[in-house]
Amino acid sequence: MGFRGLVRQAVTFALFASVSANQLWHDVNRYDAHGNECLYREKSDVVCSRLCVTDLSSCPTSLQPSCPDNQSFCADGECHDECTEDIQAQNPCHCSRSGSKLPSEAQDLVPCLTIPNVTIQQFHAWNSEEDIRSACGAEANITDQSKTVGVWDKSWIGGDVMAVWAECPAAPTPNYKYNESYWIATYAVNGALVLLILVWSVYKGFAEQGVRAATSSKTSGAENRLDGEYVCAVRLLNEIKVMQEKPNKLQHSINMFAERLRTRLGRDKEHTTCPIKKTSEGRIYFTYQCTRYVLDEQTQQYAPYEFDLGTSHRRLIEQADGLSGAEVAYRLELVGPNFIEVKVPSIPAAFAREFVSFFYIYQVMILWVYFIYAYWQVGLVDTGVILLAASIKVILRVQSERRLKKMAEQEETTLVKRDDEWLNVSTRDLVPGDVIEVTTGAHMSCDCVLLSGNAIMNESSLTGEPLPIRKFPVRIDDSHYNVAEAGKMSTLFAGTTVSQVQTVTKSTDSLESDRVLALVRFTGTMSDKGQLVRRILFPNPISFIFNEQMRIVVCILLLYSVFVMAMAAYLYQSNAVAVVFYGIFAISQLLSPLLPAALVIGQSVAAARLRKKKIYCVDPQRIMTAGKVQVLCADKTGTLTRDNLEHYGGRCIDPSTGMFVEFTSDLLATDRLFQQAVASCHAVADLNGQLIGNPVDIEQFRASKATIDPQPEYLDAIQTAPNTNLGKIHVVRRFQFVHARASMSVVILDESTGKLHVFVKGSFERLKAISNARSVPADYDEACADLAREGCYVLAFAHKTLDTTDPAQVGEFTQDELEGGCDMLGLLVFKNMLKSDTAQAIAELKHGSTRTVMITGDTALTGIVIARQCGMIPENTRVLLGECKTPADEIQWVDVDTREPVADIQPHLAELGSDGFSTTELAVGGAAFERLCATGEIDTLLFNIRVFARMKPTHKVECVEHHMKYAVTAMCGDGGNDSLALRAAHVGIALSDAEASIVSPFSAANRSVMSCVELLRQSRAGLATSFANFTALICYGQVMSGIVKMSTFYFSISITQNLWMLIDGAISTAMMLTISLSGPAERLAPSRPTSRILGPQMLASVGGTVILNWIFSVMSYVWLFRQDWFRCNEQAASEVNLNMWWLLGDNYESSILSFVCTFQFIGNGLLVNYGYLHRAKWYKNYALLTVWAFLMAFVSYMLLADPNRVGCTFRLNCGTPSALEKLGYKSPSWYIEPYINVIQHNVIPRAARYKLWGYCLGNMVATNLWQVFVINGPVRRLLQKKKPLRRLKVKL
Length: 1292
Hints:
Layout: H1 3-14, E1 41-46, E2 51-53, E3 72-73, E4 79-80, H2 85-88, E5 110-111, E6 118-123, H3 128-139, H4 145-148, E7 149-151, E8 163-165, H5 181-207, E9 212-213, E10 230-236, E11 240-241, H6 249-264, E12 269-275, E13 277-278, E14 284-288, E15 291-296, E16 301-303, H7 313-317, H8 325-335, H9 347-354, H10 358-372, H11 376-408, E17 413-418, E18 421-426, E19 435-437, E20 447-452, E21 454-458, H12 460-463, E22 469-471, E23 491-492, E24 497-502, E25 517-522, H13 528-537, E26 542-543, H14 545-571, H15 576-590, H16 595-612, E27 615-617, H17 622-626, E28 631-634, E29 646-654, E30 659-660, H18 672-680, E31 685-687, E32 690-692, H19 695-704, E33 707-708, E34 716-719, E35 728-738, E36 743-750, E37 756-762, H20 764-770, H21 780-789, E38 792-801, H22 815-819, E39 823-831, H23 838-847, E40 851-855, H24 860-870, E41 878-883, E42 892-895, E43 901-902, H25 906-910, E44 920-924, H26 926-935, H27 938-941, E45 945-948, H28 953-964, E46 969-973, H29 979-984, E47 987-991, E48 1002-1004, H30 1010-1051, H31 1057-1075, H32 1096-1120, ...
Parallel strand pairs: 7-8, 9-10, 11-26, 28-40, 28-46, 40-45, 41-44, 44-45, 46-47, 47-48
Antiparallel strand pairs: 1-6, 2-5, 2-8, 3-4, 10-12, 13-14, 14-15, 15-16, 17-18, 17-19, 19-25, 20-23, 20-25, 21-22, 21-24, 27-48, 29-30, 29-39, 31-32, 33-34, 34-35, 35-36, 36-37, 37-38, 38-39, 41-42, 42-43
Helix pairs in contact: 1-32, 5-10, 6-14, 9-11, 10-11, 11-16, 11-31, 14-15, 14-30, 15-30, 16-30, 18-19, 21-24, 30-32, 30-33, 31-33, 31-34, 32-33, 32-37, 33-34, 33-37
């Protein structure tokens, strides 16, 4: 057979499914490989059909009946005492038909005697009916039956025809019985579910008679109010969509259908039934999501109750006497206990919660099919894998919930002032308006306002801030209390710990007390911590792009399953049992019940690896998002640079000339007032010998070489450095640093002179604006800019002497009055030093196609210097700085290197470098950023701006949100001012020493940007692993439902039962588990892993592999049909009992299929391990290689070795003992179930085995080369250059 013959045969075989179940594209067992008729073979013990006549005298002599005298020959062909009606109805010549279904020609037919079984010496398989008739006729001594004997329903008695053979047409296949075991199990399980739903519905309807529907903005509830004992709280589930793209028409249609179905089924809302309760005073309320909702009798609406404690400092301080017992009881009824109860389910309950999803129900349906259809072994394996994946998911979730419970639930005893008495009260019973004493070591369980004294707080678990924060009491004035601004420094947040307290008994502007007092402002879930906990406990669902594309995949696979089932129905000719059996198996292979497990395992392994790297995750779903991060926004101080700045020196102003003096690094050599300002103008505290406060303040205080007196007479007492003759300094009044003012100030009492001085510290821009113009040097801006260009952190100081010497009078002045009219003192300069690994981290991120952006509260020039030092801004890149005094002013652009103003930045941005991006970078200040947002220009310039400077916390959130509109955005910061932005970003990474922080999904104990690199490495590897497992299972389904199922349908064969179990129970499962063990790549790849199931990479990978496997499978049968040892020993589909599927592998067709597809499954597991872009090199996955090598050796041994116990266990290369002896092999000592084929074996000749082995290896090599060179190699890179995907293109 030439090449054309091969092609013709391959095409014919590929189209065989449309022909017939009887293999009509060739004559079975008629011709050998050379076109000659097959040699005759002997067929023994052949059953003959009955010979039927109208008159028994027409029967051949040997077949004429002869009965004893007392018996009669009846219509059933036997002698009986009496021919009853029942006996007559069993006439074999009627072919089980009666009434109108019995042809009139057959009504008078009666049978002759039974012809004994015959042996046919020369049996032709393709002409079996003629051979049997001839042999049976010869046995009955019929000489010329071609004229005298007809065939039932083809030629009837008449003329020369004297008899007919009762070769009855096949009886109609009995209908599928719905009382069989499969349907009984279906009825039992689904019936139990329906019964459970009915019982629950009846109980729910009875219990909720007259349900009171909840309506509030917080619950998004129903509209009607009804009387009853329960409330149905309804929450809209608004999906948070990540990594979305514009859908095509098909995707849009499916999304719309899914959304309508989701709405129709009520899956777009979450309904919670809450029992209505009453307080001791009869007030009606219910608890929903840890929050008490109280019924307002006037509006008849439920809502959380909030108490107005006032918004001014004076109003808050007026409540320092505490509440009465009656008021406390009243408020406790309205707001409920100050306790956030996090209900962590038990392990059994957690499993029950996990297994109620739709896909688990689908898995159960599939698994019981396995158990019922004699496939229980694989059912057990798959059950184990599903339980393992579910267990990992449940355990990780329960552990996360337990950590959250530990952080959320706090209860201890505290001193509370009630009825003018101090009482020991549980924190659970605190209410808004209570006044408590703050003590060292206490855990804050509510948000409080500090009324008197100072407190040092550890906020790491709440905000991620690594260093303790000093808190100050609110001043006695009418200033507005705003927790987002200056009020934050007077707020003690729930979830924080008190490191140290300090009473203030003598103060000019705050409450004096021998206790540290705080006013309870919010309790429970109304606190800042409670809102975070609630958001974590009850999140909105997150939808990724692959969630939407999965709908299309499922639709395609379901349609393909319908096609496979239709082919089974057509080719099996209405054999209902076989159709249902193979159809359900095809669906289970296309939509593998292991798919969810495959996606979860990669995510779980990544979470475990991150934890080993001390990167903790409280929201595992975000790992998938982190794998697609495109933009990383980073804070500067404490993130890119070291926490502690280094004192560089100072530059004072000569008051007599108004000019700068020379820069000096020796602070003690500067002006007396400047030294006093540096020593006193800060908020540093001493905590057991450790300086606590803002890192800049700490470094400033250290530079002064002063010490803090632990027993201050006023707010603080500073002992100046020895040998300076400055004397002791008392801090009489302090105004904390506020971002909105960009400054702070203190009023100090100079003990040596008795004078009161005001010192103001802040940004050099702010102090220039408030200082006397005559005191500001002419070159002030230039000097500050020069220092900033050197990467210095510059603080300016101003001073004035008060006319009064009485500290008590200081409280009468406002902050603006005290700070107004100051003279500039000079500049204090610090050096910003990069962390040792920052430059390496930025380079890694850029190599990984991640754009890095700086968002800092520092000056733009300092930010630019740091950005250049760490490589964020490339060398020799022009940087234009845009600033304005207020958001209402026009932005002035300046070249930071030439200092020349730039009227139009567009020509500069249009200049492109060799990489195709602009050679100019932009930097903007806070006011300029506000201006760009107001005018809408921020959208066009966003990805040209590298440094966002002088950014307030709210600015940082806006900046992150603008980036999130165009890219998957991560925010990295060290807590504190970054906490809002960390919460807002797609991926927030808090650099915190705390093991877990609720400020962001991720927290890293290693306080370095390299933690971001590690997070992206592990997340990309986890995402790639999940898709690798998905690819492997899809390829598995395509092989199983493709060539395997079509071969099964056409040849009426099957892979042997034990081989099924090897493939499903060992190969696919072991490969899936070991694929997940692949580690991350050493470096971030220049591209991110795909998140699109229907993307070109996935389609090419799966499609190419499936097509190659199809080609090799088809060609293996082409090769088989050219073999002499196979032809004339073929499986006859028409002679097979399809219901005995476990014995349908006793033939050569099944053997070839078994070996080819088994090697394909093993190869598929290996080729998806080639994700070296995001995962470690394939040869470093030792577990996978070990499993692969073992399976290769095991299956190769079955193929290449002579008949042995292993092969016979799988009924491959084996046969009955007698058949093996005829082939020259030793008779096996173990039991072998008889083979159902004619030759009683399926042993492939030795030479053919090696050819088949090489052919299977060639198949594996082809698919692996496709993966290596096309999907991951040079072909992919070439296509990426010629036809790049439409991705976000930004300068890295």
